[in-house]
Amino acid sequence: MDREFLAQAFFPARFLIACWVAEPLEAGELELEGHKLVAVNTGRTDTAHSTCLHVPSIGLIVGGDTVYNGIHPYLGETDTQSRLEWIATLDQLEKLEPRAVIAGHKVPEKRR
Length: 112
Fold this sequence. Notes:
Blueprint (H helix, E strand, L loop, with lengths): L2 H8 L18 E4 L2 E9 L6 E6 L4 E3 L5 E2 L10 H16 L4 E3 L2 E2 L6
Parallel strand pairs: 4-6, 5-7
Antiparallel strand pairs: 1-2, 2-3, 3-4
């Protein structure tokens, strides 16, 4: 069955019929409101082919699957070698000297 048909059937008026497909970044970066956003290939972390985003102008790393905070990492798809590579990746991100890091996996904030 067609995905667009299913989306419209289950969620009418919530989806546009036209779909856009993401294209790879030619230079590994793009610009948004005057800030360079750099895609960082972090290799294998908790799963194969992880990436994160670095915004050098504001010292930000958006960690994606590479960075965890306050919870146990998912290790089901790892082995000793891949965990050592993951640690080396975190060391490389630290060398970027970020002022802030947004973890892709973290303890949810408490709500009142």
